[in-house]
Amino acid sequence: MVRQELKKLVVYSFFLAILLIPMLGFKTTTFEPGRAFKTLGVFVAILIFNFIVKMIRSHREPADAQKTPFTERMQEQINRLPKTYTLGGLIALAVIFPLLADNYMIDVGITCLIYVCLGLGLNIVVGLCGLLDLGYIAFYAVGAYTYSLLNLTFGLSFWSALPIGVVLGMIVGCIIGYPTLKMRGDYLAIVTLGFGEIVRLVLNNWDSLTAGPNGLFGMKRPVLYYPSFAEDGFAWASYYLKSLPALYYLIFIIAILVIIGVRRLDNSRIGRAWIAIREDEVAAELSGVPTTWIKLLAYALGAAFASVAGAFFAAKLSYTNPNFFLFMESCIVLCIVVLGGVGSIPGIVVAAFVLIAAPEVFRQLEGYRMLAFGAIMTIMMIIKPEGLIPASRRRRELHETNEIKPTD
Question: Which end of the chain has fewer surrounding CB within 10 Å, N or C?
């Protein structure tokens, strides 16, 4: 046991040296050995501390091993609270957040809520239906450019262009999804990745329509209409959502509606059909599930939610550019789904705030942010592969027990 842990300590320290020393300026003229080895020493100290803790735990009394872990005890205490109180408290906290935060933090909150919508949309495709989509950000781009073009060309408002963007996003989702119906695994990932890059390159090179790499700008913000009673009589007044708090409340309402929609789909017959396809597509088809149409529906609905987020994103910035929709964005959304828990709505919401807000909070450590991002993802997949808040089905899959209970 001790020899095995010491071997791990040496190997991990060696790989940390390979990663950290080049990142901290491995150049013949400017390399600072003191800075590099100090940083490496901190990480090695953490590994040594972890080694000591493991040794102490391994030599505890057997009775201590039977105690309930701290995380399980906390989960039991949380589960005892009524869900209504928990949800009410979280919603109240989200509502008063703009009153307590500055504009920068409100902007970060808006970005987090946009990624909540994207993560929930991809959860339909990846989490429920089991289709690995690496080009999901293309639907986000379709929603953004649809609103931008309709607003700039025809003068349509945000609310008038939104359903058109949703329908167009669903059509593009079906177009991308249809050729992949017979593909699985790595082949499916490569094809969806290719489609995502095709959409980005079309937007980047179609200068006459999308203005190419210059992007489109000047779109109007969303507007709310409310009745006004003046001396002239009844009339409709308009209020443009230009301030960050107003935009925050709009995307918050959109995120709530997306959560409700995805939850209803998860608990419906369609959701059960998606899960059957994810578990065993051949068995699902033999059981009477129309796999072709059900998989196309997963692509279409996932694209619809992404289009809504894209339209809001374009309206918020009043500017859109193909460089906003790179492959890395698809990877981040996929990381949100996996880190939060595949098929878990609360987990995806929490993971979106962790992955988007945490780098902003630790912006002072700019040189180490991506290192920390990769380290967190690696540790999570090793320690808790089912995600932060796993779905009940996923938890049972990854923690199957082979114990045979005695029968009476």
Answer: C
Question: Which of 290-314 are b and which e, b meaning 16 or more Cβ less than 10 Å from the residue's Cβ?
Answer: ebeebbbbbbbbbbbbbbbbbbbbb
Q: How far, rounded to the nearest angstrom, does the alpha carbon of residue 349 sit from its chain's CA centroid?
A: 8
Q: Are residues 102 and 45 in the same domain?
A: no
Is 238 within a domain? yes
Which amino acid is located at 69 in the chain? P
| Pair of tokens at residue 274 | 């998606």
Asked if residue 114 lies in contact with residue 309, where contact means CB atoms within 8 angstroms, the answer is yes
Q: Which of 312, 369, 262, 322 is nearest to 113 (CA)?
A: 312
Amino acid identity for residue 205 in this structure: N
31 and 111 in one domain? Answer: no
What does DSSP assign to residue 24?
T
Range of the domain at 56: 2-63
Q: Helical H runs in 31-102? A: 33-58, 62-65, 70-80, 83-100
- Each residue's pLDDT tens digit, 269-280: 998 999 899 888
Identify any residues that bridge with 233 across adjacent strands, giving them in sequence order.
Answer: 230
List, for residues 27-40, the tens digit of each pLDDT value: 444 445 555 566 55
Q: With bands split at pLDDT 50, 70 and 90, how would you rate the model's confidence at 8?
A: low
The answer to whether 308 touches 254, Cβ cutoff 8 Å, is: yes
Burial class (CB in 10 A: 0-12, 13-18, 19+), 352: buried
Cα–chain center distance at 175: 23
Amino acid residing at 387: G
**Listed residue (293, 289, 283, 393) closest to 347, CA to CA:** 393
The token pair that represents 329 in the structure block: 């964005």
Helices and strands: H and E segment counts in the chain: 18, 4
Q: What residue type is 170 in one-letter code?
A: M
CA separation for the pair 100, 105 (Å, rounded)? 10
- What does the radius of gyration of the chain's CA atoms come to, in whole angstroms? 25
273-to-97, 223, 296 alpha-carbon distances in Å: 38, 39, 12
Please list, in sequence order, all residues whose beta carbon lies within 8 angstroms of the beta carbon of residue 22, skipping any fewer than 6 positions away. none
Total domains, the chain: 2
- At residue 93, φ and ψ (nearest 5 deg) are -65, -40
Tokens of 342: 């595949």
* DSSP 8-state code for residue 94: H
Structure tokens at 230: 């003046």
Confirm if 311 and 144 have CB atoms less than 8 A apart. Answer: yes
